[in-house]
Amino acid sequence: YMALIVGVNWGFAVTPLIALPNGEMWPPMSLVVGFIFVVRDYAQRRVGHKVLWAMLVGCVVSWYMATPQLAVASAAAFAVGELGDWALYTFTNRPFSQRILISSLVSAPLDSIVFLGLIGLATPWSVVIMSLSKLGGALLVFWSTRVPEPGPQALQPTAARVIDVAHSFSSALAGCPQVLGGPWAILLWRAPQRFSARRRTPL
Predict the structure, then answer these.
(1) What number is the average pLDDT over the span 84-91?
(2) Predicted pLDDT of residue 154
(3) Which pLDDT value is given to residue 146?
(4) Alpha carbon 24 to chain centroid, angstroms
């Protein structure tokens, strides 16, 4: 998370802007900013609210590495965007992939509005373009981490437990022919073994 913050700030400093058809300038590094929000969510899942200390350091790094004209705007945008991401991730009772998407949908526009507003370049077009650029990383991670619908393979662990229980039960019966006749007990003992072996056969 910290390495990404340093890398993105360095990238903003060395990557030239691209002129858009309407005459506005677009920073290509905004495509990478969205990954900071996503990695911050992963960091919070790993270390909890201790990530707030890393966010504070990131705010200082953003101020220090920016040019003097952009230092305040960069630090303020980072603070507002990351705090918004932290709040939504923390208080939204959703699966992890959905929290990544929801928090980024709010924090990316917040970051863009604050930054562009403080440097005097906030227009509807510039805010939309920068926000969409930042959301690319969040959408990519959302689609790659979302929980799939339960399928046949998701039921295999349950089936394995059922087979193990059946095998244990039939083994007990096989050792007690007086309870359920020897041949029948042996048949019950063999059936789960055959089904289990078939289940383990690679496709």
Answers:
(1) 92
(2) 42
(3) 67
(4) 32
Residues sharing a CB contact under 8 Å with residue 71, sequence separation 6 or more, in sequence order: 63, 64
Q: Evaluate if residue 110 carries a pLDDT over 90.
A: yes
As a whole number of angstroms, the distance between CA 30 and CA 37 comes to 12
Kindly give, in sequence order, each residue whose CB lies less than 8 Å from that of residue 99, ignoring residues fewer than 6 positions away. 41, 88, 89, 92
Q: Are 76 and 63 spatial neighbours (Cβ–Cβ below 8 Å)?
A: no
SS (H, E, C) 79-125: HHHHHHHHHHHHHCCCCHHHHHHHHHHHHHHHHHHHHHHHCCCCCHH
Q: Which of 58-72, 142-156, 178-192 has the highest mean pLDDT?
A: 58-72
pTM: 0.64
* Token duo for residue 101: 């998407």
In whole angstroms, what is the distance from residue 134 CA to residue 136 CA?
A: 6
Q: Give one DSSP letter per residue of 18-81, joined into a string.
A: EE-TTS-EE-TTHHHHHHHHHHHHHHHHHHGGGHHHHHHHHHHHHHHHS-TTTHHHHHHHHHHH
Does pLDDT of 201 surpass 90? Answer: no
Q: How many residues does the chain have?
A: 203
Which tokens belong to 95? 């699966």
